[in-house]
Every structure is written in structure tokens, then in C-alpha cells.
Amino acid sequence: MPSDLPRYTLRIPQILLDKIRFIAAENGRSANKEIELLIKQRIQEYESIHGEISASDLKYEE
Predict the structure, then answer these.
(1) 3-state SS of 1-62?
(2) Within 10 A of 34 (CB to CB), how many other CB atoms are there?
């Protein structure tokens, strides 16, 4: 079943990708889900300090 989620190409050093894959396997997740979890945690951390990022704060390029 194809996903309707947007795609984003991430370029990172191989060693970091390998470590993410290791951590993901330890947690029973895919590397993609592990990265998604890390991003969500970072956003929560940022918003707890600076307040919620609202839709009006976001700038979209056309």
C-alpha cells in the first residue's frame, strides 16, 4: 500500500546511519521510524522551551 506521506531525502554519514539502524533494531523499529521518533522528541523538546509552533509560524515555499 503506497504512502501519501511526503518524502525527504536525508544525507548523513554512513556511521550515523549504521548506528541509527542498530538502535532501531534494538527497539524493534525500522530506521525510518527511529528517525521519525527522534524528530518528534526534538520538536517536543523545542516546543517545551519556546512554545508550540503554530501553522502560521510555518513558511511554505511554492
Answers:
(1) CCCCCCCCCCCCCHHHHHHHHHHHHHCCCCHHHHHHHHHHHHHHHHHHHHCCCCHHHCCCCC
(2) 19
Round to whole Å and give the CA distance between 53 and 47: 7
Cα–Cα distance, 15 to 56 (Å, whole number): 37
Residue 61 has pLDDT above 70, yes or no: no
Q: What are the two backbone dihedrals, phi and then psi, of residue 23, each rounded to the nearest 5 degrees?
A: -60, -45
pTM equals 0.83
Express each pLDDT in 19-40 by its tens digit.
999 999 999 999 999 999 999 9
